[in-house]
Amino acid sequence: MSKSIVPANIEQLKPYVAGKTIAEVVEAYQPEQISKLASNENRLGHSSSVEKAIQEAVKVIHDYPDPLSKKLRKAISESIGLLPENIIVGSGSESLLGILCKTFFQNKQNIITADVTFIGMYVQAQIRGVKIKKIPLTKDYRFDIKAMVNAIDEHTRMLYIANPNNPTGTYITKEEFEWLISKVPEDVLIIMDEAYYEFAHQVNNYPDVLSYKQNNVITLRTFSKGYGLAGFRVGYAIAKKSLIDYMLKTKLAFEPGGLGQAAALAAFQDREFLEQSREVVETGKQELYSFFDEQKVKYIPSISNFVMMIFDSEEEAIFFTQKMLEEGVILRRINAFGLPNCIRVTIGLKKEMEHFRRSFLKVLNQA
Ligand SMILES: Cc1ncc(COP(=O)(O)O)c(C=O)c1O
Asked: Contact 230/189 with Cβ under 8 angstroms?
């Protein structure tokens, strides 16, 4: 057999598989209505101010964008009470995960995370040949921070926690975060991925990570979820200046592009849209919980814009996802996350959630 021209970590890499697009579902099933509830996007769309900002920004797309996203960093830093030097902007938080992996790891160093969390973290680590120690979630589907701390060894460079976690929607509390920072050595970085921060931070007991000003904590946030800009690819990291400086060395010089920077700035300044997005999610979630309770569907209460359903078997989950797809409701099976009997549903608009419930009952009758 011929020898591979790529290293083993790339040969064995399972690339990230995204949820189905609307066009793919239309082509396959021609349903009357489509509700895309698979990828935790903002179903309300985006702030109207974004389009005006893009029209302006498009006038200069022949020039390279600002490599340091200065305007955006200034706006973010002012809102969180830190300096622009404490922030790096990248092409989505997924790119920032890649930047973390290429910046901070040397031979044999490992990252500790859960066995069920955002796949992008696993992919970025594997691309860089970083060893991942996956710690099983607790029985109630939460990060097992005690077991994670126990797993720290001399080669551990980083702990990764998605808070709230994707796909479970569970979170580590203020007390747990305080315990964590008291136990993790200073030279081990703690990555707090707050991709769903905008939906989560008002929840009682959700840790205000930035207020601790920890030297070894890097917080990640994104414009893809609460701000509705998943298509633009803009995310940011917040940390002490020396860590940000290292990350700035390894990021692609001109990420994110100029349109993304302008769109993110406009979105960031529209607090009203964010509030409306939160309301859509909160109302939709409460109605969904009531429906699940009535139908005796098992689910995990979530502080995010999605909810995980638990079925009795993988077969049931496959059947249900497929039948819902044929009805035009796109859901996400989370077998690739390590839970083959679970399905994740993004909270959508009222009409989308009605479509979900109608289709759910129809599929239930066929089961
Ligand atoms: C926990 C978590 N982190 C990061 C991301 C990636 O976000 P972005 O669009 O900013 O790359 C996601 C996307 O689903 C996520 O769930």
From this structure: no
